[in-house]
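Notebook entry, structure prediction.
Reason for the run: the old model in the group folder had no record of what sequence produced it. Starting over properly, with the input documented here first.
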Amino acid sequence: MQTAFSWIERARAGLVAELAERLGRRAGSVFRSAGAVACEAIADSVIAALVADVASGKDAAGREAMLALVQRFSGSLGYADLRHLSTTLRQLVLAAATEAEPAERQRVEDWLFQLVLVGAMRFVAQREQTFQEQAAQLEVRQLESQLEELKAAFAEKTRLLDVIRQASTPIAPVHEGIVVVPLVGMFDAQRAQLLTERLLHAIGEARASVVIVDISGVPLFDSDAAQLIVRTSQAVRLLGAQLLLVGLSPGVARTIVDLDVDLASLKTLSSLQDGIAHALALRKLRIAPAGR
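New structure, fully documented this time:
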């Protein structure tokens, strides 16, 4: 006596072989690229799911088979491949169902429909996940590129600022033992440190005994700037040289008085000309007209 769905068991080996052969035959498909062994494994898993589900009256095995298929070929499985698998499977199974009862044939039709539905849903979900991952990777690469550009721009800006500080803090020897430092722009702690380092080096090289610092080009000379100059003067004295501060305007002088800044340790003069004259006097030198 024939049991329910016994025709599937009899046709199972032939269904697997024919389905595997047709999957590998289609040119340009992901199944053909995977090879004959992979096609046979796919065909066997799908037919095994059909046998399991018609026996249990459920569709769980078919859903698991389609999920495994979509995950296995993630990123390379096309919708045309999925449709080719579904239509070929339907043709082969229904062709083998000549001995099936109407109820059995309907059950197989329902299972095939569910298989197509689940496969399409899994395919769309997997493709959406792939797109999101690719978009996230692209965004990360863009952010990394922007970060590298910002780092390069910051490094270039730092270099330019250093060049500007170097250029805005020149040290000019005007006579043997005398150097002049004309300050232009804001005078802050970083610039004071640079000035001190360069001055100490220049004093050693030029064997200078008098340093004239001209602040007439500094727009704002407050208590902080004054204290920085005092510290620079102390460092200069450690090398046996004297610092003269010139270029104090009446407004700057009033500010220093109002802020109660102590510049008693510094020799201050109103102009660079006065500073050079005083420096020459300290060196026991004087400017005289050239003989005719």
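Summary: The longest helix spans residues 102-167.
The old model has been moved to the deprecated folder.
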